[in-house]
Amino acid sequence: MPVATETTPTPDPGLHLAGRYDRDVAVGIARVWENVLDWEHLPALHNGQFHSIALLDSGSWGWSARVVNQPGDESRAQIITVRIDRAAGRYCSATVEGPGAGTEIWTTLTPLGTDRTAVAVSFHVAEARPERLARIGERYVEIYARLWDEDEAMMVERERALAARRSVSRDGVAALNLGPVESVRASLPRLVEFGGERFRLLELDGRLIAHAATCPHWLGPLGETPVVDGCIRCPWHDYAFDVVTGASTDGRGLTLAPAPRVLVEQGDVVVCR
Ligand code: FES
Ligand SMILES: [Fe+2]
Fold first, then answer.
1. Domain match, 155 and 27 both
2. What separation in Å is there between the alpha carbon of 199 and the centre of ligand 2?
3. Could you say which of 115, 144, 166 is where a domain stops?
4. Residues with Cβ within 6 A of ligand 1?
């Protein structure tokens, strides 16, 4: 089954339409294209659907990757190619090898405003028997509803985080008094705004610390991620950080924004530079 290319901008005519899925998302089309090209988020954000991904190739045309859907399912890995046609507002996700090889999923993106995009997806498969085709279509609609829910939540939060970052004042920041130490301890972990940035205040081995609650990669939310062995992992692309030093713990080299100091002064917790 040939993979769709820029010269074949429609589904393979030998395939059968299994179903369609339509919705709007509450972000502009630039944010959606960014998400489409972001192969790395699949196993982190969509961990119910993807277990691991290894990039094979990428460029302005799209990307190709080896994807494993479930732990221990290496032998059933798929090669997936996503080819985009920005001018036409359309892209095709084709399964090139592995289970479902030959399947093409076509998505059309239509801008509805600066913060709204219409998404229209159609699923094209080799199966021709009507009953099976209908079942495959239903399953795809169910999966895509969940994937787009997860993507929309990520894109909306990223948009919010980008806007917040643009409005941050670089002026001097006054110390923040959070009140009596016992009541602060009882409220942990908690988020605090300091100098226009969000930090999570928590107690680690009896010590009060703060760490950046925004990921340095794509501004993913780090305010609710569990702390395991002193490390946190971002829910968007799984980058990992030491909460005390902010250093990368997965070799990917990014560092958390410097956290403010957390002091106890005259019985009060004070956050300051
Ligand atoms: S935003 Fe990508 S790992 Fe955090
Ligand atoms: Fe996604």
1. yes
2. 26
3. 166
4. 215, 217-218, 220, 234, 236-237, 239
Q: Which ligand is nearest to the CA of 233?
A: 1
Residue 2, domain member (yes or no): no
From first CA to last CA, the distance across the chain in angstroms is 60
How many domains does the structure of the chain reveal? 2
Query: 162 and 181: one domain?
Result: no
Q: How far is the CA of 186 from the centre of ligand 2 (A)?
A: 37
Query: Which residue range is the domain that position 20 belongs to?
Result: 16-166
Which among 53, 158, 237, 249 is the best mutation to test ligand 1's pocket, defined by most ligand atoms within 8 Å of the CB?
237
* Closest ligand 1 atom to 215 CA: 4
Shared domain check, 140 and 255: no
Predicted structure pTM score:
0.90
- Confidence grade of residue 26 (pLDDT, cut at 50, 70, 90): very high
Residues 127, 20, single domain; the answer is yes
Domain contains 9: no
User: Are 139 and 264 part of one and the same domain?
Assistant: no
Residue 96 has pLDDT above 90, yes or no: yes
Phi-psi region of 121 (alpha: psi -120 to 50; beta: other; left: phi over 0): beta
Note the ligand closest to the C-alpha atom of 239. 1
Q: Which atom of ligand 1 is nearest to the CA of 44?
A: 3
Is the pLDDT at 273 greater than 70? The verdict is yes
**Is the separation of the CB atoms in 247 and 254 below 8 Å?**
no
- In the block, residue with structure tokens 């084709």: 94
Give yes or no: residues 23 and 120 share one domain: yes
Closest C-alpha to ligand 1, atom 3: 237
How far apart (Å, rounded) are the C-alpha atoms in residues 189 and 17?
49
| CA proximity to 109, closest of 137, 88, 80, 140 | 88
- 102 CA to centre of ligand 2 in angstroms: 21
